[in-house]
Amino acid sequence: MKSILWGTLGICLLGICLEVAPVLAAPNQGEYPDQLTEKLIIGRTETAYLTDWGIALKAKIDTGASRSALHVDDIEQLDGEPERIRFETQDQHGKRYSIEAEVVKHVTVKSSFGHSQHRPLIRTRLCLAGQEFETVVTLADRSAMRFPMLIGRRALEGRFLIDPDQRHVSSSSCLTSTDAAVPAADSLPKRIR
């Protein structure tokens, strides 16, 4: 008698699980059927190409960060309006670049440890997984960090899905600086060698 009761209970539970499982597995597929096919999959780390400057560097994908950040050294304020700065950064092979860029604005960034830092925000073109787009990045000293660039949600949203099991999924699909289109001289940051 016990085995009949347990068997019946098991079949009932299995029936409920079979009805509920598809809903739990894919709650939004009906609402957003094209969204999954339109977005590219990237890994937790990728090679980012800053095409305005011809720089390729290792980047950490961080959906916990709102904005992207780039490691720089020696930020120097330049004279004139609009506000411009000069800074140094390097690519993934250690080659150093001196860059001039217009400051979009200054922002306060709060770290995961609760520390606030005032940083300049600049505009540049980023190529990731074969998609090139304009974005903004904050400039900071990331010398203590493993990755010189952090790519935050604002640059990612609407474009990518992140697979945390993967790394460098499509790092070879972006153009290098010699193949990149040259932006208008006065509209975007400039590379100075």
What does this structure look like?
The chain is an alpha+beta fold and 193 residues long. It folds into 2 domains: 1-31; 39-192, Cathepsin D, subunit A, domain 1 (Beta Barrel). The chain has 3 helices and 12 strands. The chain has a 6-stranded mixed barrel with strand order 2-3-10-4-9-8. A two-stranded parallel sheet has the order 1-11. β2 (45-50) and β3 (55-61) form a beta hairpin. The radius of gyration is 23 Å and the shape is globular. The protein starts with a helix and ends with a strand. Mean pLDDT is 78; it is low at 20-30 and 177-193.
| Cα-based radius of gyration, to the nearest Å | 23 Å
Q: Into how many domains do the coordinates divide? A: 2
DSSP summary, beta strand count = 12
Ends distance: 85 Å
Kindly report the oligomeric state of this protein: single chain
- Report the top-level CATH class of the largest domain: Mainly Beta
Named at the architecture level, the CATH assignment of the largest domain is: Beta Barrel
Question: Are there runs of 5+ residues with pLDDT below 50, and where?
Answer: 20-30, 177-193
Average pLDDT for all residues: 78
Helix share, percent: 10-25%
Give the DSSP E fraction (strand runs of 2 or more residues).
35-45%
Q: So how many helices?
A: 3
Strand arrangement in the largest pleated sheet: 2-3-10-4-9-8
Strand-pairing-aware structural class: alpha+beta
Instruction: Report the major sheet.
Output: 6 strands, mixed, barrel
Helix and strand sequence: HHEEEEEEEEEEHEE
Task: Indicate the overall shape.
Answer: globular
- Look at the structure and name the CATH superfamily of the largest domain: Acid Proteases
